Amino acid sequence: MRVRSHYRDWTFLLLCNLIWGSQFVIYKIVQRQVGPVFAALLPISVATLLLTPIVWYKRPKRNPSIQGRSVGARDVMQFVLIGIAGQVVAQLFVAWGVRYTLASNAALIVLALPISTALMAYLFLGERMTPARWVSFAFAIAGVIVCAGINWKEVDLIGGSFLLGNGLLFLAINGSAFYNVYSKKLLARYSPLEVLLYSYCVVVVFMLPVGLYTQPQILTIMANFRVEVWFGILLLGVFQYFLAMVLFLTVLTRLDATQAGLSNYLITFFGVITAAVVLHEALTKSMIFGGILVLASTLLVTVYEKRPWTKSSVSKLPV
What we know:
By secondary structure, the chain is mainly α. It has one domain (2-63, 71-304). 74% of the residues lie in helices and 0% in strands. Helix 5 crosses helix 7.
């Protein structure tokens, strides 16, 4: 029975990483007709609607001692913080970033998530930032820049056509890392699904007026969405932001965070494959070398140090 459960958990992780790896291609498709704000907001709204009845149904059964508990002002501020500095930065900048770079680049930059999480843990949880982790972070930044394909002979930063997109994606990775780290303060009092739902609510409240300001004609645009755009929005909402997150959080109740987190390397594999199949993107030498640098940054932390995060450490939730 234990072996069967083990295989089931890793099957779930495989499915989660396949979903997360395909998000960059889907964002490319969705943004053929909608801007980055609504490209992120519409799927998150779908996931919020799906999560609400589940949290409402499970909360009293899993936490009978806290029925009727009110959310205090301090908790509200923390939810707002992880919602804006975490979820908004992570999800909006992913959608925004893929407008200016290749989906393959985005998949490679995801490799920086573990070291970004280590840096955030140092800043907000007081975990030790070793020399190897500082070197790793420098490698990650170098990899992001190399992936941009800058013409170093002419030092033409604008000529690196993917630098802006790569930079936005790197900020998105750090937003996700901040969310993963800082949400631990709330996980002591709320279930993972509650934290996820409440942070999504903050995203919707914050991004809706921003989206209406930047794209006031959204209702007219939505009426003319092509089938593939609606399909992409539903895929992101149902699978990326709802199903994959629920499955991942479920697996985390049975596996170490480190075990589950290391599976996130598959995001890059699936991301590059889907970009090649759907968008016909090809890997360049600079992208491969940049990806190697980003991967090396993470291996320094997870292998060289010989002591990755323990059970009590940060749970890695992808972008």
